[in-house]
Fold each of these.
Amino acid sequence: MGENTDYIFEPLSETDVDEVERIEKESFSEAWSRDAFTDAIGNEFHRIFCLKRKGEGENELLGYIGWAVVYGEAEITNVAIDKKFRGHGYGNVLMEKAIAVIEKEDNKNVFLEVRAGNKPAIGLYDKFGFKEIGVRKNFYRFPTEDALVMMKTIGE
Ligand SMILES: CC(C)(COP(=O)(O)OP(=O)(O)OC[C@H]1O[C@@H](n2cnc3c(N)ncnc32)[C@H](O)[C@@H]1OP(=O)(O)O)[C@@H](O)C(=O)NCCC(=O)NCCS
């Protein structure tokens, strides 16, 4: 990751949906449908933001993050970086920018669920100060696996 890289962090638009759907399918065994992403566009209670790198022509979509907002709490629903770009620090950039928006929108806490064996994601969340607050037994399917519930208090 170049420190000087110009990033764009902007709400999902119709023109991003093909790429986001492709990344979602390559990342999750129970992927969100195209309609779920399309429905989230313009939804008052849902945010999906894309991280892009400025290109010569079109900007390159690196990944995306989504969260639902309920009574001042944000619940992260999607986090993914395109497989070919993982391990270069873009997950850090994605999370940093999302937390900044979540904070700016005056939310107090951020929650998420993660597969208990998903080391890269748990490593990322630890780094950003998320703490494990519970376990949902056998929450995930394909394969069956526990979910860790994690929480971060904004500003801590
Ligand atoms: C989780 C994910 C978004 C991380 O994105 P990334 O761009 O590869 O992450 P980065 O390179 O920015 O690394 C950020 C931190 O994540 C952790 N991490 C990333 N890859 C890791 C790995 N292979 N093993 C352990 N920790 C890892 C580290 O803490 C890392 O911090 P560091 O750079 O100081 O070491 C990415 O792996 C992904 O899209 N996974 C598939 C989808 C997914 O599982 N999403 C989470 C659903 S809850």
Amino acid sequence: MTSYKELGLVNTREMFAKAVKGGYAIPAFNFNTMEQMQAIVQAAVETKSPVIMQVSKGARNYANGTILRYMAQGAVEYAKELGCPNPQIVLHLDHGDSFELCKECIDNGFSSVMFDGSALPYEENIAITKKVVEYAHKYDVTVEAELGVLAGVEDEVSAAESHYTRPEEVEDFSKRSGCDSLAISIGTSHGAYKFTPEQCTRDPKTGKLVPPPLAFDILHEIEKRIPGFPIVLHGSSSVPQDEVDTINKYGGKLPDAVGIPEEQLREASKSAVCKINIDSDSRLAMTAAIRKHLAENPSHFDPRQYLKPARENMKKMYIHKIVNVLGSDNKL
Ligand SMILES: [Zn+2]
């Protein structure tokens, strides 16, 4: 058993309470590689922001769970070295799909876990979430649950259709499961293709797709029923068109990739939404920089030559999100 406290990590409890009160949201960035980890830590330190570094099942399969755990420990030490004496870094399991996986992560130094029972029948979702909560709270680990289904594909998580969270269920669910935060479905979606062109309208000036708006009425109804309870938005990348254009210009093929407009996420950050998950935007920033670098420098073959601009580009994106979208800067 390794407690996250020994690693210098923190859970989400205090962080979320402050974010709900303060009208901002904590960034939850997925990571798989050292360059992503470095970019996340540099961005968080420079902006004095708390940060959630999250690991999906896909990341565990790609990088190995043990390595990611030590990278999170390294992230804390790296943040200190960069001049942040008390970094607020959470190591979070994204989309845990069983009690056993959540337990394994809790036993191995994660400070927060998600149990995603959103595809299960309601009572089963409550029962397993509650079991995870009972185990997690023994070690002061916080638990995120999910109600409602997001559409889209990301790692092993996929659903063809979304089902908005039903506001009438949230009070009963949060009370009986004992979860610390709740991921809801109000129209965000996983991946870089959040909406089909048919679901969108086209901006007549730019020809770009404009996605359907988030269901703020449902969010506000949920806030009314569980005032101050920490709400989480998954699938909240904005799929920046300049990165998509760069990828397409240098040999990529991402037609009609579309995300959530940042103005809407900014508005959501001011509500009880206190954790916003961003993964695809980091992937796009990395790939755009690598494609551009290799196209412009065909003789380069040292990975450091193209991973350095990739890291810089991700860091720029993370800082932009923290300062201009989530408002979590200067909160340490
Ligand atoms: Zn998700």
Amino acid sequence: MTNRIPIQRCQYCGCWDIGLGWQHGEALVTFKKHGMMGNRLQYLICRRCGAVLYQCVAEPYRFPPVR
Ligand SMILES: [Zn+2]
């Protein structure tokens, strides 16, 4: 990942202790209706209150454009 993390502080509790998480496996966000190919979801999570502050996919260019 070369993306810069867009959030450094929890907007809910004001905590600066942000954790990075990945979701993959059974809960993949797929870009094919019935395919097995998926994309990992990156999460930024407040380590104090547990709020999910941000989420994005690891490889957004793999998704087809809407138009
Ligand atoms: Zn928080």
Amino acid sequence: MLAAVSQVTVVSVKADLGVAPEARVAPKKATAGPRRPLAPAAELVALNRRESFTLRPGPQGGFGKQTMHALARFLRCHHTQRVHAISERLARLLYETAAHFDYHPLEVVAGYRAPRVAKQKGNPRSPHKRGVACDFRVAGVGNEVVRDYVRHFPRVGVGFYPNSGFVHLDVRDGASAFWVDYSAPGERAKYSPTPEEDVRRFAQEPDTQPEGDDPPSAEDPGVIAPNLPALVPITPREE
Ligand SMILES: [Zn+2]
């Protein structure tokens, strides 16, 4: 307070000395606090379009209208180009996920999906058609690790797609859900009847090919579609 008063005094003295009237207005910046540093940006890359998007929260931590509009455009249905509003909570969780993994880019397989596309894909009630879901992976991070991380969020649906190379995340009002879908890209869903058991079983398998261990089980066809960018092995990004 004292500083502000003395400043006013100085201004009035200057005015008496013939300083131009506009100089009497004390500059606002002099009393404003230090600027908050910008939050780091999360980078989203659309694998189907080779487009990228920078997601950065505003000074208050949330995402403004403009950001949400731009995000909706980025996460548009890549089959129909249709744009639909995206849930802000989903945006926050995507950002938190990127932050958790040291801002490695999120490689997005699908965001919004037009209703007819959702239907064609065999799920007419897909949360993708409401703009509350995203299929993605994190560059340089195993999908099991991403899966286990996003399962910590409250009120989410998490789908694990070991043969398609991504994790599904949606935000919902009710209890969280988890499923494993063994379909390969372009195939209809092949849901596991025992997702939790599958996760435990896979967790016991070491990352590297074990010696003398059994190959993947029969229900895991191990199908890798070589022509899909989503299945190109991930190399960690160096900053
Ligand atoms: Zn999905």
